Amino acid sequence: DAGVTQSPTHLIKTRGQHVTLRCSPISGHKSVSWYQQVLGQGPQFIFQYYEKEERGRGNFPDRFSARQFPNYSSELNVNALLLGDSALYLCASSPTAYEQYFGPGTRLTVT
Amino acid sequence: GENVEQHPSTLSVQEGDSAVIKCTYSDSASNYFPWYKQELGKGPQLIIDIRSNVGEKKDQRIAVTLNKTAKHFSLHITETQPEDSAVYFCAASTATNRDDKIIFGKGTRLHILP
Questions:
Q1: What are the tens digits of pLDDT across the range A7-26?
Q2: Residue B58 backbone dihedrals phi, psi, to 5 degrees
Q3: Which helix (H) or strand (E) holds B72?
């Protein structure tokens, strides 16, 4: 079975630009969560969506937004990029309220 | 909110020996404790988890223990092998039907020495 897929794998952007990251969950999983992982740290929760509705939001500014589509795939959008937004962005899908399975991530570099 | 502390940050063990990583959590409402292994350039991989109604769980060479009273949980890897070298994260979640965000520790870099 295919795991969680994310695109693109790598991305380089300039300060002030915006970026869209994409995620396809494991087939049958209806919940998608987004995490930011800065080098040397554990992942930090950004958003969770279930059945296209936002279920949770972490402590991130309004420049970060997300949505989930009818096929359960998801997009994470970040506006007005800052140098500090450089990180690995991880998507996780979940079949229940417990286990979350992560994709390989998108490495975002802001210059 | 929930806070997860993880120790040690780095751990080196001889191949064949055991490794133990310890974590504490702050929110007594947390009811789900997963452990993830992350290799270089990859996303975190769920290796084992435990729910709050269980004190211990084992899967081959890996075991987790949970002490709800002390808010401690630990990962034990026995008979370590070179492929166990990676960064390991403990995490805690208050899994409900409305919200199951995972709060991660800062990670332990495990080195298996030949």
A1: 999 999 999 999 999 999 99
A2: -130, 140
A3: strand B72-77
